[in-house]
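Course assignment 3, question 2. Fill in each field.
Student: A.L.
Task: Predict the tertiary structure for the chain below.
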Amino acid sequence: MACVLAGTPANAQGDDLIKAAAKGDLPRVKALLDAKADVNAKMSNGYTALMTASFGGYQEVVRVLLDAKADVNAKAGDGVTALIRATLGGHQDVVRALLDAKADVNAKTGDGVTALMMASTTGRLGGDFKDRSNSAEVVRALLDAKADVNARTGDGDTALMMASQNGYQEVVRALLDAKADVNAKRGDGYTALMMASFHGYPEVVRALLDAKADVNAKAGDGVTALIMGSFGGGDYRDRSNSTKVVRALLDAKADVNAKRGDGDTALMMASQNGHQEVVRALLDAKADVNAKAGDGDTALMMASQNGHQEVVQLLKSVGADER
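Answer field:
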């Protein structure tokens, strides 16, 4: 085998090494390295054997490549590094091996994503949910290695925002313990609390509120967390979470009558979408049932226009003006 490999063109050997590493084929990787394959050879997209092995979680292959002087901080065309690939796969042992080899913990992709952000946002891999406990452990390992907890993408997103909108409670807590800025705003003014509220994660919302998230912060369009939580919903999630989110925000003194730029309130959003229990919670908190949006519509009109008769009756029962 060694003789055959020795006669193989260097670029072909490099390609073979990358393919073997991607499959976790340790004997083949060792044979190719013995035959002097370029450990830092790159595919057309800039990916190396170390990157492909890291993504696959092949710890022993990674160690062999590192021992062969693989460039731990090489970047692909999109700026991805082996460490970022390992965090995408949720492979904490590989992450630690790369960090031990002096991987740049704060390296960024072309759009500004760091390994910490990747670990905070990754929830699906190949269509299947991965063990989220791995995400939390990977995040802690990165934070121990001095990852910048408040680094931002080009759009202003932070790791905390990403974890919050995905409902990763343990990751959120780890980031908050590391002094993540709970009130950071991305370019459009949205905060982690707004994102968690919209996507319906009550435990994350409570964790953010406990960390002194500004419950009445407004985005550029005037939206608040309460408006987001009242609007959020749909068939893709359990609507009972909307009610839990809204009640948590109201308990934290959210302004129940705050308006976004077009004049819509939380009550209008909930009524429009037929979220009866959210409507009830907002009414219990003294929401103005007759407030008008910029176009003159009220919560009652919105509920009626969208066929939510139970919400219509509820609004009428507390004095909604039918004119």
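Instructor remarks: Residues 190-323 form a domain with the Serine Threonine Protein Phosphatase 5, Tetratricopeptide repeat fold (CATH 1.25.40.20). The chain has 19 helices and two strands.
Grade: pending
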